[in-house]
Amino acid sequence: MTDLIIEYIELGAANAYIWGYILIFALMTIESSFIPFPSEVIMIPAGFLAYRGELSFGIPCMDMTAALLSGLAGSLAGALINYYLALCLGRPFLYRYGKYFFIRPKLLSRAEGIFLEHGEITTFTCRLLPGIRQLISLPAGLSRMPLIRFTLFTSLGAGIWSFILVWIGYYLGSLSGDTTYPELVRNGKGILTQNYIWVFLSLAVIIGFYALSYHFLRRLSPKH
């Protein structure tokens, strides 16, 4: 399925200088919602095209920044779709009919368990983890997480993830000026897999800092 998606991305890339950012936004919205779609096949080629100056501005740094912002906006839009679906439809509907919308009850239960156990910070950390990245917005909606906090945490996580993928594509563009899109995505995934340990270590540091800060602020807050 991934190879089929890559073929369509490659066709769209031929006109990336015209509507590349719209394509990035639309596909990342799909990827971030309940429809299974690998973000690697979107943002890695986006970084590659940015390095080659084949997006709208024709200037690598500007194209990379615009691609990153487009991906972030799409990720947030998709996450908000999930958030409001859960908020409006409720738990019984999602568990009963979610399978018709690519939301398997087992994965939904897993996402909800993680959210309930670790709290709102999971809407940030899980954006960097495959397999649960899209679904973590559903328990946030079911739990009626404050929208401002949800938007902030989701944007931070999605922004970091999009930056990692765009940078990989940009880096691969600096190494080779002629490569096929399947090779580009495979090489990008290889780099991501080899360095995923640093993502987990960074998450551990961020979570630890958040936990300490939260505990410290609670101790300083006046007791009623």
- Poorly predicted regions are none
Q: Beta fraction of the residues?
A: under 5%
- Major sheet description: none
Shape: globular
Number of helices: 11
Distance between the termini: 56 Å
| Helix percent band | over 70%
Topology, number of strands:
0
Offer a concise description of the structure.
Helices cover 76% and strands 0% of the residues.
Features of this protein?
224 residues, mainly alpha, 11 helices, globular
Can you offer a commentary on this structure?
There is one protein chain. By secondary structure, this protein is mainly alpha-helical. It has one domain (2-220). The chain has 11 helices and no strands. The N and C termini lie far apart (56 Å).
Question: Topology, pairings included?
Answer:
Elements: H1 2-13, H2 16-32, H3 40-51, H4 60-89, H5 91-97, H6 105-118, H7 122-125, H8 137-142, H9 147-175, H10 181-194, H11 196-220
